[in-house]
Amino acid sequence: MNQDYIKPDNWSIIEEGFDASSVKSSESLFSIGNGAMGQRANFEETYTGETFQGSYIAGIYYPDKTKVGWWKNGYPKYFAKVLNAPNWIGIDVEINEENLDLNTCTEVRNFRRELNMKEGWYNRSFEATLKNGTEIAVNIRRFLSLDLDEAGIIKFEITPLNKDAKIVYKPYVDAGVTNEDANWEEKFWEPLEVKKGTNEAFVTAQTFKTHFKVTTFMHNTILANDEDIHVSPSTIDSTADKVQYTYGTIIAKGQTSAIQKIGGYTVSLNHDNTLAAAEKTIKAALNLGYDALLQNQIDAWAKIWEMSDITIDGDVKAQQGIRFNIFQLNQTYLGKDSRLNIGPKGFTGEKYGGSTYWDTEAYCIPFYMATKDQQVARNLLTYRFNQLDKAIENAKDNLGFKNGAALYPMVTMNGEECHNEWEITHEEIHRNGAIAFAIFNYNRFTGDYSYIPEKGLEVLIGIARFWHQRASFSKEKNQYVILGVTGPNEYENNINNNFYTNYIAKWCIDYTEEQIKKVAAEYPADHKRILEKVNLAEAEIQEWKKVANNMYFPKSEELGVYLQQDGFLDKDLVPVKDLDKSQRPINQKWSWDRVLRSPYIKQADVLQCFYFFEDHFSKEELKRNFEFYESFTVHESSLSPCVHSIQAAHLDKMDMAYTFYLRTSRLDLDDYNKEVEEGCHITSMAGTWMSIVEGFGGMRVKNDQLHFAPKIPKEWKGYSFKINFRNQILKVSVNHDETTFTVDGDQDLTIVVNGNPEIASKFVQIN
């Protein structure tokens, strides 16, 4: 834990007291989004202290040319920057002719931020004394509408405390923005058009190269004591990329002045005429009005929480942590648009780039399958199907593969590889396996097999072809090997025979063959269509099987563990407990050369295999491998604690499982990895949900049935969650004395609890 200023609360993220050193961290933690857009919790008014400005629009990116020392064949042509979008939240404020700036006020009192996760709004309030002696109380509420998802709303209220005040509001929209990660402070937006109305303004700009067109808009209303006083701007200033209005008001001491600002984005992804769409969005928001928009927001979040909430009784920090994770996941992706995906930073920062990693398939799909309609998860699978041609192109053009072999990109916006680190782009090929596993996992959980003959089998064939060509035959071992890879543990690069990679390669080939046979038997028309389309014959499948049936897996017979890679035991095997704490995190303290030569593991690697394929191994095998590898794991990946928590719970190591749960659930809130100011770890948050449902709840799907093995940490009095399993809603409630299963509906559901079949109906209690 590296920070501890967030106040424990069941439903809100709360900061009390103004501390300039935590501003950038809080900008990440208090971020808001609605699936279509999002923004960091930047101040609306001027702030001259350190800040990380960030607003983001789903699906909008810039292909920044890859920079490498020596260009090699196959390097990605660009790195996809997640773009800082034009600023619509800005409101400069002058009070008695002095600019409001918390960095220059003589005193800031009673500063408080609240991110209300239950109702979906962000609030900031404070009292301040300006250099001119004016004392004010300020309250600002902001939310991004879930229903009207191109619009956001700000209500900025000021109450003078010690004298009457002349208050000047200067709201603006500004496309002249840069990225925090810009190489030379270059701009990525080209202004096209500015339009000004009485109280509304529009700036239309497009991205260089990709030519996404965006209209950024605002509408302003000036209030006194919550009544519209129908003030028009006294001046309008504009440039090619910015419009700013000036509204002057006078308010008596103790009375409240406010500006109500509607703003947001309309995008060429969704509209032919973005300006007309922006005008329509403003009209729709005004017709509803602030109070109705806020109530609709509260109602929309209530509907989300009804299905996705996890309750924890007796541990406020644990409760706050899981709700923060669930809230951010729902802010980032709601499943409305199959063109979109779940970026690793969501709408909270720019780091990593791209809109999806293997995190979506490995960690996020289980959350969305169980807490939404299954169509949401199917949309995430469809996203990959729609990019299959690009995956084939990637394998062909960048790696020299042939015959329809597909390598899905490690990072992408449109199907093309857009990550510029060779050891990840070329070597972290295990992502192909996670995509195949997600198809299997979707069918296993939902029972919807139709995706495979319609779309999934083509993806599986492309992936199987890749693994067949990527493996090579070792005469020395008389087996097939996979050389020069990076496994999930990114603290080892260019190693041979990563156990997880080899295992999932074999599994992909076996699973693809099974599905080809099943589709042939049950969907003969689809089977004929697909095999003709991809030009697949039985002889090629038999060549795949030679690789799968004779794959090499490194193992230590002496230790009884699978080896992470061929040379793992050649390392200086000093466990993490004996590593000086001053050396942590090693990725910030050590040279990369030293990291690569060390035995230290960033995240689950061999154990990732045991997580995916738990049924393939005995519990004793898991125990040996868990105890060996966890002792070398530094958990410097956000994806690490959740897998370890699930496996620790399975092994009845409940203290360890609870510790890992707290780490995954509060990774950002407590800034374990000292990097939260760069943005939150959105995709790993789905792993936090899995830590409870699959870890403590022990949920598995076997033979078309839900299995549970409930456990409870001693720190909790009880917990509960809901699962949408094949269109039946099951609520699971666990305490130290009993577990209760309740089905929402009249149809019974057969479940297996601790190995014993049970019939879950309106109420089933297991002691």
Gross morphology: globular
Structural class: alpha+beta
Largest sheet: 11 strands, antiparallel
- How large a portion of the residues is in β-strands, by DSSP E? 15-25%
- Number of β-strand runs: 34
- How many DSSP helices? 19
Helical proportion, percent range? 25-40%
The first-to-last residue Cα distance is 37 Å
Structure summary:
InterPro entries: 6-hairpin_glycosidase_sf, 6hp_glycosidase-like_sf, Gal_mutarotase_sf_dom, GH65_N, Glyco_hydro_65_C, Glyco_hydro_65_M, Glyco_hydro_65_N, Malt_Pase/Glycosyl_Hdrlase. It contains 19 helices and 34 strands. The protein is α+β, with helices and mostly antiparallel strands.
Write out key terms for the chains shown.
767 residues; 5-stranded antiparallel beta sheet; 33% helix; alpha+beta
Describe the structure.
InterPro entries: 6-hairpin_glycosidase_sf, 6hp_glycosidase-like_sf, Gal_mutarotase_sf_dom, GH65_N, Glyco_hydro_65_C, Glyco_hydro_65_M, Glyco_hydro_65_N, Malt_Pase/Glycosyl_Hdrlase. It comes from Flavobacterium piscisymbiosum. Residues 323-690 form the Glycoside hydrolase family 65 central catalytic domain. Belongs to the glycosyl hydrolase 65 family. Keywords: Hydrolase. The chain is α+β, with helices and mostly antiparallel strands and 767 residues long. It has 19 helices and 34 strands. Strands 1, 2, 10, 11, 12, 13, 15, 16, 17, 18 and 21 form an 11-stranded antiparallel beta sheet that branches. A 5-stranded antiparallel beta sheet has the order 9-8-14-20-19, with no helix packed on it. Strand 32 (749-753) and strand 33 (756-760) form a beta hairpin. Helix 9 (451-470) runs parallel beside helix 11. The longest helix is centred in the middle third of the chain and has 35 residues, at 274-308. The radius of gyration is 27 Å and the shape is globular. The two termini are 37 Å apart.
